[in-house]
Write a structure and sequence with these properties.
1 helix, about 325 residues, mainly beta, disordered N terminus
Length: about 325
């Protein structure tokens, strides 16, 4: 594009020169096209370059007979790939080949019917659903979708849909002005998109009430709520966040302001050795924290960043 603009500027200067002579000229140029990388899946993408030629003719009035011309830019012949930075190895990319590709993403459900993630509508007719902390996927619940997308990134077919709450425990520090409350040391923020499953808003959250929250973690110790239950059916404590201050000797780590003791915890689906600072985990217990310490009964792998919004539409 810079080359075309420069060429056009030079041609304009030549056409404005003195002299009454006339002339005609033709131009042949090469151009480089760049295929924009896809950001789906949260990984790094490689943009491809392609070269093409363009021709054009024009007339000039300068004394030396130089003429200005225009030509069509060359078509891009590059390819694009995209990957997923997550540990599951899934990614999104067609490489310009016109085939379907694996995809995975995180978001919050909205409505009924097929799941829409980053503008892609996923058919869920044959998907396997794994839902924890609820009997079915409902509006506002955070969910992970894995499946196939077409080469044009316009639609997909989900093979797996997974959902679990991020936080469950006693509410405190309710601030209706700021739109926040605290659960076991994690600050929960709400906005106009937050769905209240059994309440009308933050004014219905009472200190010491057990609440259940689905959401999208931000900085360590924060969560943007996508769905809130003020009186959930389950009451066992649950906390999701980024591991900090991991102490493998005493078998503890910190989620926000909550210390998790994992000395007696099971690790379904992951190895205890995979724990590391910066890893996202979901810790569950059977009793409320005592003196800010949660005795975890299970530690599960959380969903890796980056987070992306999804919706569910009829």
């Amino acid at each position: 594009m810079l080359g075309l603009l420069s060429g056009g500027a030079i041609a304009l200067l030549l056409s404005c020169g003195g002299g009454g002579g006339g002339g005609s000229g033709s131009g042949l140029g090469t151009g480089t096209g760049v295929v924009a990388p896809s950001a789906a899946g949260g990984g790094d993408s490689a943009a491809g370059n392609g070269a093409g030629t363009g021709t054009g003719t024009g007339t000039g009035t300068s004394a030396d007979g130089a003429g200005s011309g225009s030509g069509s830019a060359g078509a891009s012949g590059g390819t694009s790939t995209a990957g997923n930075g997550g540990t599951d190895g899934s990614g999104v990319g067609s490489g310009g080949t016109g085939v379907t590709a694996d995809a995975a993403g995180i978001g919050a459900a909205d409505g009924l019917g097929s799941i829409i993630l980053n503008g892609l509508r996923y058919n869920t007719d044959n998907a396997t659903f794994s839902i924890e902390d609820a009997t079915e996927l409902q509006i506002g619940m955070s969910a992970r979708v894995a499946g196939k997308v077409d080469a044009n990134f316009t639609s997909g077919v989900a093979t797996q849909v997974m959902s679990a709450a991020e936080l469950r425990g006693a509410a405190s520090g309710v601030d209706t002005g700021a739109g926040t409350f605290v659960v076991m040391g994690t600050t929960v923020s709400i906005d106009s998109a937050t769905v209240w499953g059994d309440a009308n808003g933050l004014a219905d959250v009472r200190p010491a009430n057990i609440v259940q929250v689905w959401g999208l973690p931000g900085a360590p110790g924060t969560l943007r709520a996508t769905r809130v239950l003020v009186t959930p059916a389950l009451t066992e404590p649950l906390a999701t966040g980024t591991v900090q201050n991991l102490d493998t000797l005493h078998k503890t780590f910190v989620l926000g302001q909550l210390t998790v003791d994992y000395s007696a915890a099971a690790f379904p689906g992951i190895a205890a050795s995979s724990l590391a600072n910066g890893v996202i985990v979901r810790a569950r217990g059977v009793a409320p924290p005592v003196a800010g310490i949660l005795a975890a009964t299970t530690v599960q792998a959380g969903t890796p960043f980056p987070w992306s919004m999804a919706s569910r539409s009829s």
